[in-house]
Design goal:
By secondary structure, this protein is mostly helical. It is elongated. Among the domains are: 146 residues, no CATH class; 112 residues, no CATH class; 128 residues, no CATH class. The chain is built from 15 helices and no strands. Helix 3 packs antiparallel against helix 4, helix 8 runs parallel beside helix 10 and helix 12 runs antiparallel to helix 13.
Amino acid sequence: MGMAWIVLLLGAGAIIYNHVYRKRMYREIDRLEEWKINVMNRPVPDELAKVKQLNMTGETEQLFERWRQQWDDIVAVKLPNVEEQLFDAERLLDQYRYRQARRLLEQIADGLRRLEEEVHEIIHEVNELIGSEEQSRAEIEKLRAVHREAKKTLLAYRYTFGSAADLLDVRLTEAEKQFQRFAELTEAGNYLAARDVVLTLKEELSRLTTMMEEIPKLLGECQTSLPAQLAELADGYREMEERGYVLDHLHMEHTLQEKREKIEQCLAMIHELRIEEAKQTAAELKEEIDALYDLLENEVLAHQYVQTEMPRIGGMLQEFAAEAKETEAEALFVQQSYHLPPSDLEKYRSIEKQLHQLQKRFFLIQDRVAEAKTAYSLLKEELEQLVSQIDLMKEEHEQFRTMLQTLRKDELIAREKLDAMRKTLAEALRLVQKSRLPGLPEPYSLELAEARRSLQAVAERLEEKPLDMPAVDQALEEAKTAVERLYERTVEMIEQATLAERTIQYGNRYRRRYPAVRKGLEEAEFLFRHYDYEEALRQAVAAVEEVEPGAFDRVQKLWQEDNSREQ
C-alpha cells in the first residue's frame, strides 16, 4: 500500500514539474516573438529617408544602396526565418521534446542579438554620414572666415612677415583650393571624404594663424634686437680692450661672427616657415648672448677683485712672514729648553718652505698684473687659490705655536705638581713627628726613601736641558704613586701604633688576675718598642679580647671620640 502511494506522489510531482517547465518555455517563445517584432519596428526606413535628402551620388549612393539591401534582407529573409524557427520550437514543445526546443530557443536568441547589432550599426552609420555632412557644413563656414581674416592680415601687414610672406601666400592659396575640393566632394555626395578635407584644412589654418602671430615677433628679434645686442657686445669688447683688458681667451671676434651666422640661419628658417626651429634657435641665441655678456662682466669684476685684493693679500703675506719669524725665535728658545720631536720640527720647516713658495707665487702674479698680458679672470682664480693656501698654512702655523705654548704650560703644571707632592710628603713626616713614635719600621723607612728618590728624579728631569716632557710626565706619574702610597701608609701606621698603645693601657687592668693576658701584653710591648706596630696591635687585641670580648671596639670608639675633639 505504501509503495503505491509513493509511486502516485512521484507521478503527481512529475506532472506538476512538466507543466511548470512547459509554461516557462512558452513564456520564452512569447518574449522572443516580442523581440522579433521590436527589431522589425526599428526606424531604419525613416533614417534612410533622411539620407535621400543628401546628394544621392557617388559615395552616398553606394552607402544608401548597401544599407537598403541590408534592411530588405533583414525584413524579407532573416526575420521570417526567425518566425519559422519559433513555430518549430512550439511544435517541439507540443511533442515534449524539451531539450531540442531549449537548444532551438537559444539559437533564436543568438540570431536576434546579431540582427539587433546589425540594425544598430546601420542606424549609427546613417547618423554618422548625416552628422558629418551637417558638421562639415557648419565648420567650413568658420574656416572660410579664418581664411579670409588671414588673407586680409597678410595683405594689410605684409611688411611685418618679411620674406615669409611669399610662402604664407602660397600656403593660403593652397588652402583656398581645399575649399573648392570640399565643394566638389559634397556635390558628388562623397561626404566622408569631404569631412577629411575639413579636418586637414582646420589643422593647416590653425598652423598658419599661429605662424602669423609668431613671425612678426621672431623677425623683430632676428632683424633688430639680437643684432643690436651683438653690436653692443662688440662695442663693449673693443672698449674694454682699449682700457687694457686682456680678452684674447674669449675669442670674441670669432664668437660674434658665429652668432651673426646663426641669426642668418634663423631668418632662413622663418623664410621657409620652419617656425618651431626658428623659435628654438632664437631662444638659444638669447642664452648664448647672455653668456657672452656674463663673460665680459666677469672680467670687469675680476679686475676689481685684483685691484682691491692684491694689496690686501700682500699685506697678509707680510704679516704672516713676521709672525713666522716670531715663531722661529720662539721655537729656537723652546728648543734650548725642551726636547722637540723631529715630526714637529719637520712641520715647522715645511711651513717655512711653503711660505717662501707662496711669496714667490705672489710676486710672479704681481709681475703678470704689471705686464698686462693675462686675463683678469685667470689672475683672480690664481689669487683665490693663493688665499686658500695662505689660510691653510696659517692654520698649520697656529697649531705649531699652540704646541710650543703647550710645552711651556706643561712644564709649569709639572712644577706645580712636584710642589704639591713635596707638600704631601712633608705633611706625612709632620704626622709622624706629631705622633711621637719610638721609631719607624724598616719597610716604612724604605718606602719613605723611595718616595724621596722619586721626587728627586722629577726635579732632575725638570732641570735637564732640553727638557724631555714625555720623560718628565712619566717620572711625575711614578712619584705620584710613591708619595700617595707613603701618605696612606703613614696614616695607617700612626693609627695602628696609637691603637696598640691604647689597647695595652686598657688591658693593664687584667694583668694581675690573668697571667695569659700579662704574657700577651708584655709581648705586645716588646713588639711596640721594636717598631712593629701592626703585630703589637694584633697581640694586644688578642690578649684583651680573651678576657673581655668587644673590648677592642670600646678602645676604638674612645680613640675616635678623642680624635674628633682634637679636630
